[in-house]
Design brief:
The chain has a domain of about 100 residues: Serine Threonine Protein Phosphatase 5, Tetratricopeptide repeat (Alpha Horseshoe). The protein is about 75% helix and about 0% strand. It contains 29 helices and no strands. α21 packs parallel to α23. The radius of gyration is 37 Å and the shape is extended. It comes from Glycine max (Soybean). This is Pentacotripeptide-repeat region of PRORP domain-containing protein.
């Protein structure tokens, strides 16, 4: 009668726990399960297996481990192979890698019981090891699977091939692929993607083609990712004929070339100056029902501009791209660059104004192109205007950009403009470095504004910047030319204290100036 009563209590606990779990009330279910284990009811292995399974499904991994180590093992119970496998899979899917020691201990427990994880658990663990850059451990597990009674499946091979390719161990990846084929397994499209994309990204395009083409001819259907990787790989090698053959082959196998396929070929044709072929390719796209996207048109623009066909590029932008609302900053930058290279800077500037009017925001590249062109042309007022536009649009140049502009202006005798740009640089929160100061110092010294140079020389030091050898040589040379010999000597003294020396020519010039000076300068 007593045993019957205990059994009834156990059944009542199980029923209540099951209802709570079904209702999603996991915390209440945990509380009731604890009550059950602390009561005089005998809790069996099946109860722990079921309850740990619930905890795993609800990602209560820490609690599942607690019950396993503090309840299941001390009571001489074990989990079922299925529960062990779900436990390992859940730990592998957790968002951190601190579970690896726990997974290893579960595998050892299974091994001691003669249990083997199911293939899902094996593959999930393999994948985790590869993601955590533990490739050697993953390979050891992969090769030991058959001896444990669990042969790797296609997913196992895919995981290992992908990891070997990521580690640039391409020959080993090919060896694993051949083993997959020898075992009579039929690779799916995911396995083909892992192999081909991996090998092609490492430049082993011929090997990728050799390994996969037989499989495809054998009837395995692959998606455009595989073909596109091969086409891209052969294009990068300059073997466009082979790439075009693969495009024709993919069509014959029922895999229609997609937008990516055409864009890869477009990129190659435009880079190589094959403009007519690129145009025909776009026409083929449109006939095939593949609508060119912004990237396609930008590539074609690039091709026209590279072939010095800037008017044709501009016409296409106006007649085809703008009517479809498909122009972006890259489109404008491409054509503006071409106009500027053709010394048609005014047209480039008109396009700049046009893009601003259409709400397409110029970027650093846009301003770089135009400022460089107008600097070469000597149109400093336009350069200053563009710099002001940059500030208004909050496209702020860095120190290198400002320094290049200041240097160019100084070398072309536009020192006042250079000085204004230098001050704008400071006002915009960009700190000049020694090279920036040297650029403006050079301008001052070359235009005999030696006292302006000295003020700048003092300013840079007050800001904690140490003059370098170039700085001292510029200042000393400028002071000598300005007949400020005493001042030149003081700077020379400071220069030597800092461990710098004048070159022979400048040193002799200074000595001669001292000797011919009456000491009043």
């Amino acid at each position: 009668m007593y045993q019957s009563s205990i059994g009834a209590h156990r059944l009542a606990y199980r029923s209540q726990i099951s209802k709570l779990v079904k209702a999603g009330l996991i915390n209440q279910a945990i509380y009731l399960f604890d009550q059950m284990t602390e009561s005089n009811c005998r809790v069996f292995s099946v109860d722990y297996n079921r309850f740990i399974g619930v905890l795993l499904r609800h990602s209560r991994l820490h609690l599942a481990h607690h019950y396993y180590r503090r309840h299941v093992i001390p009571r001489g119970f074990s989990l079922l192979p299925f529960t062990y496998s779900r436990f390992i899979s859940a730990l592998c899917s957790a968002p951190n890698n601190i579970n690896l020691p726990l997974i290893h201990s579960l595998l050892l427990d299974m091994d001691s019981l003669g249990f083997v994880p199911d293939i899902w658990a094996f593959n999930t663990y393999l994948n985790l090891l590869c993601r955590q850059n533990r490739l050697e451990t993953a390979l050891e597990l992969f090769h030991s699977m058959p001896s444990k009674g669990r042969d790797p499946d296609v997913v196992s091979y895919t995981i290992i091939i992908d990891a070997l390719c990521n580690a640039k161990r391409f020959d080993e990846a090919a060896k694993v692929w051949r083993r997959l084929i020898d075992k009579g397994l039929s690779p799916d499209y995911k396995a083909c993607v892992a192999l081909v994309v991996g090998l092609c990204s490492g430049g082993r395009v011929d090997l990728a083609y050799e390994l996969v083409v037989g499989v495809i001819k054998g009837g395995v259907k692959v998606n455009s990712l595989v073909y596109n990787a091969l086409i891209d790989g052969f294009c990068r090698m300059g073997r466009v004929d082979k790439a075009m053959k693969i495009k024709a082959f993919m069509s014959r196998t029922g895999c229609v070339p997609d937008l990516v396929t055409y864009n890869i070929l477009l990129n190659y044709c435009c880079e190589e100056g094959m403009v007519d072929e690129a145009v025909r390719l776009v026409e083929t796209m449109e006939r095939s029902g593949v609508e060119p996207d912004l990237y396609s048109y930008n590539e074609l623009l690039k091709g026209f501009c590279k072939a010095n066909m800037v008017d044709r590029a501009h016409l296409m932008m106006v007649e085809r791209m703008q009517t479809k609302g498909m122009c972006d900053v890259v489109s404008y930058n491409t054509v503006i660059t071409a106009f500027c290279k053709a010394r048609r800077t005014r047209k480039g500037y008109e396009l700049f104004e046009e893009m601003c009017g259409k709400g397409i925001r110029p970027d650093m590249v846009t301003f770089n192109i135009l400022i460089d062109a107008f600097l070469r042309e000597g149109s400093t007022h336009v350069v200053k205007k563009l710099l002001d536009e940059m500030t208004k649009m909050r496209v702020l140049p860095d120190c290198i950009f400002y320094t290049a502009v200041v240097d160019h202006l100084c070398k072309n005798g536009k020192v006042d403009v250079a000085h204004s740009v230098f001050r704008d640089m400071v006002e915009n929160g960009v700190n000049p470095d020694v090279i920036s100061y040297n650029a403006l110092l050079n301008g001052f010294c070359k235009t005999s504004r030696v006292m302006d140079a000295m003020h700048l020389f003092d300013e840079m030091q007050s800001k904690g910047l140490y003059p370098d050898e170039v700085t001292y040589k510029l200042i000393v040379g400028g002071l000598i030319r300005g007949k400020k010999i005493s001042l030149a000597c003081r700077v020379w003294d400071q220069m030597m204290e800092r461990g710098f020396t004048l070159n022979r020519h400048l040193s002799e010039t200074l000595v001669n100036a001292i000797q011919s000076s009456d000491g009043t300068t």
